[in-house]
Amino acid sequence: MASWFNSADAVVPRELIYPDDVSGEDVKTRQAMLFNTSESHAIAAALNYLKLPLRIEVVVTAVYSDTPAANILFPKDQILSINGVEVKEPKNVSESVQSNPIGTEFEFAIDRGGEAVSVSVTSVDNPDKPGTPYIGIGVGMFYAAEFDINFTLQDVGGPSAGTIFAVGIIDKLTPGDLAMGRHIAGTGTMAPDGTVGPIGGIRQKLAGARGAGAELFLIPAMHCKEAEGFIPDGLTVTPITTLTDAVKAVETWTSGGTVSSCPVSEVGS
What we know:
One of its GO terms (biological process) is proteolysis. 29% of the residues lie in helices and 23% in strands. It is an alpha+beta fold.
């Protein structure tokens, strides 16, 4: 009940998070898929910003429970070919599956963490689209560097860490400490071209960031109005629309300069 009276919490109907026709496991799978995509897009945006070479791969982004691909294919498997035909883009996978009859066996050539793997998956009737072949995976483009970039967060889902991931990659790949030892937080989806996108729960993220000691918060500019009246004392909230904006804001703020701020009409506690 306390959440009803705490601006740091949001109370929403259960079905918004766990729809009746979607299992909790599939919700987690989708959140993991979005998180993996945010990592990939952050790598692309950061390397494009730094003008470093980028590798593009077609990978499994999600594997849904109780489907033919479950425990056979795994997220981040790179799909090299299907039945001997090279896979160059995500649509090649859906086209291959859906252009063959239900019950067709597909041989996937996979790169799994540098190891060549061959697996077979047989299509079934899609329960949501009867008459359509289905194997139960999501497929997307994955952007990778010519060197390892590892994300160590655990038990986190969704796409909203993309912007701060990209800033962190730039920090790691450039001399010095971008944050200058200061506590900086932020949110926002990140597109490969460096565009910052919207997220949910901005008021809760602001409260959580300040509670963890953050002094500067990078916020997607479209959320400034939503944040008004919920910005905690001691937290500078600066709007950004691109990765370049984010990096410049951090550099300016840590060097003692003034950054633009979302309006504060009523300070939250």
